[in-house]
Amino acid sequence: MHLSKKAEYALRATINLGIATEVGRVTVSGSELAEANRLPLKFVERILQELREAGIVETHRGKFGGYALAKPADQIGIGELVRLMDGRLAPICCASENNYQPCTCPDEDHCGLRMVMIDVRNAIANILDRYTVAQVVEVTLRKMRRDGIVPPFAPAEIFETKDILPKRKADPADGFLAGLSQLANFTQESHDIDRP
Question: What are the pLDDT digits (tens) for 1-39?
């Protein structure tokens, strides 16, 4: 699977709108979303328009207008967003469940490559369809708070910050699943402490 820039930017914008909601912002302008992600404004506005047409985001007019999530973040699946923007999760078209197209293989039913790519598609779908924007927002904010980073769109004065140099590698411990399991451990520890 290759995540297109369009899908990447849509995910970032949607997650940032979820973060904005959590830190008390009702709406965020398109230019703020573009700036927060260091993305071209025109591209972000086109993506936001597609997300609006799909019922993911809504617009509000007026002095404090902008974009907001149109439904609760826990009702927006990550897989749903990727499919909306990219059309399919499968690495090749003949392995796609929702956007199937025949390939050039002479015997598709017995093609080893197709069988492997169906398993790849299933693995990707199992992860992306398991999580919602709300879960990603929760793990992201927890990690930002842990590291003393001010979340996007939050008033800086209510967050204590640290001078932390950015990491320059993709550490497996920084992945979403690792963050989610840390959150589960924290929740379990809190529950154990509360018990008499």
Answer: 678 999 999 999 999 999 999 998 889 999 999 998 888
Q: Give per-residue burial for 113-134: e unless 16+ CB within 10 Å, then b.
A: ebeebbebbeebbeebeebbbb
> Distance between CA atoms of 28 and 51, rounded to whole angstroms?
14
Nearest CA-CA partner of 45 in 19, 6, 86: 6
pTM of the model: 0.77
Rounded CA-CA distance 12/143 in Å is 16
The tokens of 21 are what?
Answer: 């909601």
DSSP string, 92-125: SGGG-SSS----S-S-GGG-HHHHHHHHHHHHHH
What would the pLDDT profile of 105-131 be if each residue is shown by its tens digit? 888 888 899 899 999 999 999 999 999
